[in-house]
Amino acid sequence: MIVKNTNEGWRIITQTNHAFLATQIAQALKENFRTEYWLETLLAISNHETLETDFNSGERINNLNLPIDFREATSSKKELYSKIESMVRKASNRSIIVGALIAEHLLFLHKPDINKKSIISLCEDTIKNAKSLHKIDDITFEKMYGVVRFCDRLSLMICTEELPDLDRKFEINDSLDIGKVFLYLKDKNIKVTPWPFQKETCSIYIEHKLLTKSHFKDDSDFINVFHKSLVESSIFELSK
To answer: Long-range contacts for 199-203 (Cβ within 8 Å, ≥24 apart)?
Structure first.
């Protein structure tokens, strides 16, 4: 989960809602970024964070009884390997192409930390088998995964409020086939250049919950408060 301590309380964005925001971003892209496997690409984006990354595994609160942001959470190698294997196999049950794109993303994020050959093989074989079965060439697969990585990164920047000062630009990444794409702020609006979206402006939203309780007895207490809290939403306008 993505956690921010505000004056009003703990703002919690689930990993799955971050993935939904990434899917909104993908759906708004220009059509020339799409391949014939666009549905599979969208499914990979929406499923690259699963329910396991919300509350079903890992830490929720720290030793001070405060919510833990995903960037601060720790996990063992065993937990990491179990998560990767579960995500790739479950995604592949939807479509091996979806599994391949998620496998590629997990390798991008975690490969330096993976010391277990069977996990690397699972990911690489899933990618290889998807390409072979559906006759997807490397350039097409790279284009598909580029969309996954771009949308994940921009969504995460918005969710974590990783936004530049008014006189600066932040690079999103260069995974789309238009080179480096940058984000900057102007008159409190989010500007993206070069512009990758279909319409002149792009409206997206993120949902979160605000937890007014300052400390939590244990994981169960935190999850109970989370589920009882109302959903709130924030709208973001992207423009040239």
So the answer is: 199/28, 200/239, 200/240, 201/237, 201/238, 201/239, 201/240, 202/25, 202/28, 202/237, 202/238, 202/239, 203/235, 203/236, 203/237, 203/238
> What is the arithmetic mean of pLDDT over 196-208?
96
- The model carries a pTM of 0.93
Whether residue 52 has pLDDT greater than 60: no
First to last CA, the chain: 30
169-200 residue pLDDT tens = 999 999 999 999 999 998 778 999 999 999 99
**Confidence band of 53 (pLDDT split at 50, 70, 90):** low
Backbone region of residue 40 per phi and psi (left: phi > 0; alpha: psi in -120 to 50; beta: other values): alpha
130 touches 100 (CB < 8 A): yes
Token pair of 134 as six digits = 């559906």
CA distances from 25 to 19, 47, 199 (A): 10, 14, 12
- Residue 235, C-beta contacts closer than 8 angstroms, at least 6 positions apart: 203, 204, 205
